[in-house]
Amino acid sequence: MVKRARLIYNPTSGREEMRRRLSDILQRLESHGLETSTHATTGEGDATLAAADAVDRGFDIIIAAGGDGTLNEVINGMAGKEHRPSLGILPLGTTNDFARALAIPRNWEAACDLIIAGHTKSIDIGKVGSKYFVNIVGGGSFTELTYEVPSKLKTMLGQLAYYMKGLEKLPRLKPIELHLKSDEVQLDEEVMLFLISNSNSVGGFEKLAPSASLSDGLFEVTVLLKCNLAEFIRIATLALRGEHLNDPRIVQFHSKRIEITSPDYVQLNFDGELGGILPCTVENLPDHLNIFVDPSGTSTYGGRGLFAAINKNLQS
Description:
Blueprint: E1 3-9, H1 17-30, E2 34-40, H2 46-56, E3 61-66, H3 68-78, E4 86-91, H4 97-101, H5 108-117, E5 120-128, E6 131-133, E7 136-140, H6 145-148, H7 151-157, H8 160-169, E8 176-181, E9 186-197, E10 219-225, H9 229-240, E11 250-255, E12 257-261, E13 267-270, E14 273-277, E15 280-292, H10 308-315
Parallel strand pairs: 1-2, 1-3, 3-4
Antiparallel strand pairs: 5-6, 5-15, 7-9, 7-13, 8-9, 8-12, 9-10, 10-11, 12-15, 13-14
Helix pairs in contact: 1-5, 2-3, 5-10
Pfam families: DAGK_cat, YegS_C
Cofactor: Mg(2+)
Domain DAGKc: 1-132
């Protein structure tokens, strides 16, 4: 049976690779029974409206093509609906943390083949007020990086743009006063940053929240307590190797619901985009979305070595 898919894509994502690959992607999907129409986003919030419209029009599949920002908008258009189609991801943006966490290939052909093969996994998502996220909510030093870098600079320089912005911000590091409450922990401290992670891939760090899971109904919460610049750099270096958890300035725990307030003005990062300001309450919604994934769990983010199940499906 032919299925109807709605491909929502950001034409400026990932050095505009999606714009160049669009006809090839459509041909690959159509040749394997997915009747696919498209929507090119035109600005902030447009992908959310397009996804909500696609749900209302009864599409069987929604495909988000771009980076984490595009994916976040698409999920915000779907998550509040009673009926939610399966979601495919083409990770063609500058940052693709969520795709990395699910081992969705960066290679566009391999990512299309995941959708064609049709195997889905139910995942948890997070909710803050009327907004949703799939990967992280964070605040404090450096969490502003992803939405402060101009889109033109990201298109030209890719990930390097974030490193440049990070170096620029280093001398201006300062703590915030934070009050955090969950069933497991109450924290009233000056902190450098906090991250509420739904997956183990955060800002390109795969070991920052090593035990975060997309299917356990919990977030992994990481808080870096107040420190000076030298200590910040030292702990960041440890985090690259996954050796930060035993540092006395790191607080880490798991919870399904976290209340956070601060007397300071603290912006929130939702999946790499500006998501509002504190205070907030973060809630976990278990098994809320179905995502197309590799059933063996061995597909690499780089797209090398597609798993046998897909090859068998395509050849049949």
